[in-house]
Amino acid sequence: MDVNKDAGLDIPVGVKEIENQSPSAEKATDTPSFPQASRSRPHIHSLERYINHQSIANFGVIILASWESFAVTFQFALANGGPASMFYGSILASLGVTAVGLSLAELASIDPTVGAQYRWSANLAPCAPRFWGLLQGWITVSAWSFACAGPPSIIANIITSLTIFNYPDYESQRWHTSLVMCASIIFPLLFNLYFRKLLSAFELFGGILHIVLFIAMIVVLAVGGQKSSSEFVFKTLTNNVSGWENSGVAWGLGLLTVTFSVTGFDSVLHMSDEVKKVKTRVPQSIILACTVNSVMLFAFVTVLLFFIGPLDAISTAPLPLIYVIYNSTHSKAATNTLIALIALIIFLAAFNIFASVSRLVWVFARDKGLPFSEFFSYVHPNLKLPTNALFLNGSIVILLSLIYIASATAFNALISLQALALHISYFFPILFILLRKIRHQHPSYGPFKLGRWGIPLNLFGIGYLVFVILWMPFPQLLPVTRDNMNYAGPILGGVVLLALADWWGSGRWRFRMPVSRYE
């Protein structure tokens, strides 16, 4: 299958599809010649376009669920940076993710493809296109495969924390959390088998709930919360809790909780083969996901800080939001209801994540980027879904859930890969398109283009990504022990080594993604 054709892409003049060239033409492009057998694709499967504008717009907004994600994870920012890091960090993260989102939306309008980052990196790289494609593919697929465990772990933490809140004598065990995670995986996995029938209803319900619950939370906090001073919100920098005494380091580490909440909008891209009018609607969905979630996140962070109440009462809680809401409502029923609705939003996000990642795994396998590619590139003829890729994601999450029983540290180490690897996956395609713009070698633009703002936005987006990436490997606590060590860097290093081993082993001959040359 010609990915460019199926994605609705008009090939720019001067673009040569290596996949379709004869061996002699292939040599003329200075691209290594590969054996004829490795180029053949005997079993090519495709997906059908049926996702409308409303569904894909809601899909992007819900999968980030930025204010909800921050609401259930801000305890980490309390220990590093505190209120000042949370407030100013939400501004920086909103601006940064918008610049990155606009940059990727422009690329999506040029080439809307399920492979997204690895396809663009290969197409735009100044040299060694297949190498960059395979490396980027391993980084992106690994990040999203582990990211599938994120929503189940958050839901498990919510359920465990609510149980402790309602039954103070309850003693949480790791195997309890693991069982909850496994249970919360089953429903998104099964619902995805009926993705086509459930999509419109799920996305509409999730989009409405996302907004209505946001308004309800703002009202509850503003009406019943204990008012904080402006100095507390704008000037309080916490640098004496985590062991990091340097104010700059504490602020930078506190920023990571905010950036995590706005990471993952590329998931929309991985649905490209099923979206109608893909070259306009996917970019629009990316922009909506970034801007809407950024505005809501900033508003929620600001209101939360002004009505959070005394930090001493919540800083040690596994889920501080429970006690913030309870202090505002003085009602366990109201607290349980609001927290349960947030968990429902996270559940809907998990539904979307499983859908998106299964497509990413499917297309990478179809391009022979994975072992057992024929198996994982299978599309069920009746369901029109990549079922084998879907069950692979479910199996990975179940395995991670079982790892949690043995070691919470190992589990956290593996899922910590998500944010770091995704930011790196955004960096390379933006860098490569920026270099082409500077050299006046950019490809033909699609319906959405940044125009004269393109280079400044690309530069700002790259600067933001570099800044965030530099902080992500830092340990959150001092002194560093094996239990609190930040393993994101070493895990990413392991993925890169695996990708390099695959490249030098068989990947450089096996990997047959359609690579385009812009001349």
From TrEMBL:
Location within or outside the cell: Membrane
Membrane topology listed for this record: Multi-pass membrane protein
Protein's UniProt keywords contain Flavoprotein: no
PANTHER family (alphabetical): AMINO-ACID PERMEASE BAT1, GABA TRANSPORTER (EUROFUNG)-RELATED
InterPro entries: AA/rel_permease1 (IPR002293)
Annotated region (Disordered), positions in chain: 19-39
Annotated GO CC locations: membrane
Chief place of localization: membrane
The keyword Transport appears for this protein: yes
Keywords: Membrane, Transmembrane, Transmembrane helix, Transport
Feature: compositional bias, Polar residues: 20-39
Annotated GO MF terms: transmembrane transporter activity
Transmembrane domains' residue ranges: 56-79, 85-110, 131-155, 175-195, 202-224, 244-265, 286-308, 338-364, 385-407, 413-435, 455-474, 486-504
Name recorded for this polypeptide: Amino acid transporter
